[in-house]
Amino acid sequence: MSLFDRIADRIHSRADAAAEARGLTVTVLPGGRRRIGHPDLPAVLEARRRHALTHGLDDADRAFMDPATRAALNTTRTATTNPNTDRLRRAA
Fold this sequence. Notes:
Blueprint: H1 3-21, E1 25-28, E2 34-37, H2 41-55, H3 59-64, H4 67-81, H5 87-91
Antiparallel strand pairs: 1-2
């Protein structure tokens, strides 16, 4: 462990402990950076993605998406809902 990593750990130790006490996960990244997340976040995001694919985007989704993301999501939805297109299922 480098001196820089030890200093970063000392600076962030209280915040890391507080985040872990709240049930969050703390991942130490190179350069003293931290990634803090919720353990259920991947499952929640996947459920939201599936809902958007099957039911379309709601107004909040459209407000925060750039045009390229909207186009990619529409392409994915078309590919997954069209019975003649099995390209995405084979790739997974």
